[in-house]
Backbone:
């Protein structure tokens, strides 16, 4: 991996600056630092910069948080040097297009987006360049196509930096982190063999069997027809290999049959349930409910409205990012053939923060960029009127979220 980075890194090909050499601790022992030529530093830094990550080792899926400091106002450019030898620009990006930061301590990502570490496993490196003036090696309009930029022509890129950086006071800092998923190996043998094995509640196969497990406390359950079921608790460390040999005991004879639960055989002991369906007349929604006489419960689904056009500038804000799901209780108050309907419920919907620009786009491994999301929970209610007949009931309801709703129920 190191050799490949030496050949393909954009920053290391043509910049004729001093480079850092040495070692850095990454949580699993010491490893060589970024290969020579990848991390340039000026002979006399005009800006003092520091860069750190919140952890040295990340499991794929973990959120990545960075802290950097500047001794003076500067334009900040942050690169991800991936394990496959590519360079991606993380700052600026579609969500943070103005990279100028004041002197002091700052954290990334800022509000409205996040960074997440993904597979494959290996070592990742980050470099931050702080410049007195903006570096015009890209066009802002390029963010329309991708959340952040990737440079595939190292010769052209390095030629631009050679002309831009030396004419400005600048400084740089770098850091690295490991992408690693902890794992242990568990082998299970039984006497006799052929027993079904569950690890942590997941079926892994028939003994003898070997499987990778997450380190920590786990429960192993072993079952075989004619033998007693066994459950064993283990605590395993990262990279530990454990062989579990279990001798199964014959099942004890059953002295009496289990008592079956009582069944309802008399008609009229419990009222027969009714089934209802409802649909929104002015908003697209559908609901299904179950009634016991005059009281019912149900679930409704309202699809999210279309998201803003991602190819045109927008005002930004919180937008629905998924369907709205509601659970509710509903009652029928009969007044002869006419009745009143009262509904009370709770709904949840995922919302996403869309900055006032082009919000979509994904970041390919190793680091992905995502919009900030939250789940919005609301109290819902509704009132309406209806009529009932022999074995049916229909009603028209005004709902706080679904507007006008027409419902029909088949009653016993």
Residues:
């Amino acid at each position: 991996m190191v050799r490949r980075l030496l050949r393909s890194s954009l920053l290391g090909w043509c910049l004729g600056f001093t480079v850092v050499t040495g070692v850095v601790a990454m949580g699993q022992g010491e490893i060589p630092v970024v290969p020579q030529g990848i991390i340039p530093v000026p002979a006399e830094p005009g800006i003092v910069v520091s860069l750190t990550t919140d952890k040295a080792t990340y499991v794929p899926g973990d959120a990545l948080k960075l802290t950097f400091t500047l001794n003076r106002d500067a334009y900040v450019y942050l690169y991800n040097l991936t394990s496959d030898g590519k360079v991606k620009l993380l700052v600026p990006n579609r969500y943070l297009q103005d990279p100028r930061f004041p002197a002091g301590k700052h954290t990334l990502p800022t509000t409205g987006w996040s960074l997440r570490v993904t597979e494959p496993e290996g070592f990742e490196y980050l470099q931050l360049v702080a410049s007195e003036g903006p570096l015009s090696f890209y066009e802002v309009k390029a963010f329309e196509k991708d959340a952040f930029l990737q440079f595939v022509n190292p010769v052209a890129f390095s030629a631009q930096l050679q002309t831009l950086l030396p004419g400005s006071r600048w400084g740089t800092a770098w850091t690295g982190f490991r992408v690693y998923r902890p794992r242990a190996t568990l082998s299970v043998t039984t006497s006799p063999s052929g027993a079904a094995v569950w690890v942590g509640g997941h079926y892994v196969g028939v003994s003898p069997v070997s499987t990778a497990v997450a380190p920590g406390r786990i429960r192993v359950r072993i079952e075989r027809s004619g033998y007693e079921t066994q459950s064993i608790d283990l605590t395993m460390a990262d990279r530990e290999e454990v062989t579990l040999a279990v001798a199964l005991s014959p099942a004890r004879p059953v002295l009496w049959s289990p008592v079956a639960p009582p069944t309802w055989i008399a008609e009229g002991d419990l009222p027969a349930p009714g089934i209802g369906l409802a649909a929104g007349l002015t908003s697209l929604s559908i609901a299904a409910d179950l009634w016991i006489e005059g009281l019912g419960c149900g679930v409704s689904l309202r699809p999210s409205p279309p998201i803003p056009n991602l190819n045109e500038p927008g005002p930004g804000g919180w937008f629905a990012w998924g369907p709205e799901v509601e659970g509710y209780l509903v009652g029928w108050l009969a007044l002869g053939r006419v009745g009143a309907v009262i509904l009370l419920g709770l709904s949840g919907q995922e919302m996403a923060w869309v900055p006032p620009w082009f919000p979509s786009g994904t970041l390919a491994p190793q680091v992905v960029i995502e919009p900030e999301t939250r789940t919005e929970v609301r109290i819902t209610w509704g009132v309406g009127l209806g009529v009932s007949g022999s074995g049916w009931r229909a009603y028209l309801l005004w709902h706080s979220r679904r507007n006008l709703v027409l419902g029909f129920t088949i009653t016993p």
Q: What stands out?
A: The chain is about 5% helix and 50% strand. Confidence is low (pLDDT under 50) at residues 1-38, 264-268, 358-365. The CA atoms of residues 95 and 355 lie 6 Å apart.
